[in-house]
Amino acid sequence: MLRKLFKTVMQSSWMIWERIFSFISRFRSSHISRFGICTVMIKKHRGECIVCEDSTVIQNGDLVGELHLDNETILKLIRSEGPDRAALKIARLARKSMLQISRAYEGQSEFSEVRALVGITLLHRGLTHGLGFEHQAMKPDLFQKLTTSYLRMLLSVMHPDGKSRIDRRTELLVPMMLIHTRSSLMKRFSMADKRPSHEEGYDALLVSAAVEA
Questions:
Q1: Which of 54, 134, 137, 208 could in theory staple to 87 by disulfide, Cβ–Cβ 3.0 to 4.6 A?
Q2: Where is the YkoP-like domain (predicted)?
């Protein structure tokens, strides 16, 4: 009972921090758009050049869309549906969000000069295949270490099994940078509405596997 109460308090505290972080982030971005379960913050890339699989080069100062999941919505789904059903719902919601983001990159003036969609996550396996992201390892520096600690802490708070889940899978929980260039985003999702339903279901299962990791 006390353990459950403690976890609930931790989750509520984390969600308060997420709201504060979201507010602060508004001052670091030139534009913020909400797409279903995802938020995209447009900002300038800072750091070394990123060479993508399709030969797109993201240079220091180029605009990128930074992808963030709505962890509060995810937590509510886990609480109400349980982890298995929540994972499938999250997968479908993520796919719908990606369709909306693709259309924004194609048609909204705010996204006309944005070179890529990027994010950092521990749960990159299903997202790489299910949603078509390429992934790249982060440079092993202080930022990578801080990001690893932060994301593992987030997962321990969000996952029903908490820290025990992290301890069992520590070696697999390494943050990766996810990237969709403008070109790959268009190719992946411009024909999405015409894909067979069984392929969409397969994508959902792949993303679900990542969420459950």
A1: 208
A2: 7-188
